[in-house]
Amino acid sequence: MNRVFKKLGTAENKETAAGFLQIIFVLVVVGGMLAITALLNFKAAKGPALSSAAEQLVVDVLRPSPTNHKASQTISGVVEARANVTISPEVNGRVTSVHPDLLPGGTITAGDVLFSLDKTDYEIALERAAAEVASTEADLTQAVADADNFIKDWQRVYPDQPAPALVAKEPQIAAIRARLAAAKANVRQAKTNLDRTKISAKNTARIVESGIEEGQFVVAGGQFGTYYVPESLRIRTTIEPYFIDQLNITANKPVSVTVSNSSAAPFMSTVVSIGASLDPQTRLLPLILDLPVENLTPGTFVSVKIEGDKVGDVFQLPTTALATRTSVWRVSNDKLENVPVTIVDLTNDTAVVKSFDVKDGIVTSQVPTSFATRPVKIRAVRVDASQPFEDK
Q1: Nearest alpha carbon to residue 376 among 62, 64, 61, 63
Q2: Residues 128-157: pLDDT tens digits?
C-alpha cells in the first residue's frame, strides 16, 4: 500500500490520481440523489390520494330590492361671450376725445361715444357734395327749360308730329338726372362718414382691451381693442352623445351650475342649444347654456350637473358585480348563470340596472372564467350594496 501511495504522490501520476478522485465524487453524488428520490416516492405512495372532484367556488352575493333612481352627470364648462367685438373705426382720422371708461374692465353704456375723430375734413366733404347737388339741379332746370323751347319750335313747324328725342333733349336730361342722383348719393356718403367720426357702442360694452389715445391717428379697419356685450355671455360645455338620450337633454332643460373655486351657492340655468356636430378631437358634443347671473366673466370655470328623469324598478349594484359591461353572474341551485342586464346608469363605483330575478343572489366577488362551471357555495349575503355582508 505504501508503494501505491508513493507512486500516486509522484509528479508523473498526479494527474491520474486527480481524475480518479473526481470520478469517485460524481458517483457518490448521483447515488445519493437516486436514494433520496426513491425515499420520497416511497413516502408519497403511502400518503392520501388527490381528489378528482372539483372544489366548490366560494362567492359573496347581493340580493337587492328594486328602487327608484335618477341618473345624473356632472361636466365641466366655461363662461364665454358669444363674440368679442373689435373696436375699429370705419374712417381715417385723428382722435380728439376718448371715453374715460375705455380701458380694460371698463363698462360703457349703449349709445355712449367710445372715442371721436377730427371731423373737419368730413364736414368739408359734405359741403362739397351738397354744392354738387345744387349745381346739378340747376343744370337739370336749364336743360328742361331748353327742351321745352325746342319742343315748342318743333310743334310750330310740325304741329301733327311729336318732337323727336334729340329735339326734346331727352338724352341730355337723362344724363343730368343721373349726375344728380350720384351727387345726392355723395351727400349721403359724406353725412355717413361725418357720423362715423364718432365711434359709439350700440350695446352696453365691457372692455376687454383698448389701444386708443387722444391725438393718435387711426385708419379705417384698424383694430384698437375689443369688448363684449354682457348680455351675450353664456356657458359652453361638452358631453358624450350617449348622455343626450340617457338624460333626456333637450332645449330649455334645467340644469344646476356651480362656479369652480367659489363659495357661491349653485344657480339654475337652462340648455339653450345642443351642438350639431362632434368635436373632431374629443368626439364630444357641445352644449350651450344661458347665464342668468351677472357677476361672472369670460373664462370662469363651472361645473354643470344634469339630471335625467326618475326611473323606477332598478337595482343599484357595485361595479364589481358586472361580469362584463352588460352582464352579471347569478347563483341558482348552487350553479353560476351569466345573466344579461340593461344598464340605466353607470358611475365609477355603482351600476344601476333594470331589475330581474336574482334567484339565490348576484355575485359581487370576482369569478375566474375557468371556475365558472364549478359548484358554488355562498359565503355571505347582503341586501344593500352599501351595507356589510352577513354570513349565510
Answers
A1: 61
A2: 999 999 999 999 999 999 999 999 999 998
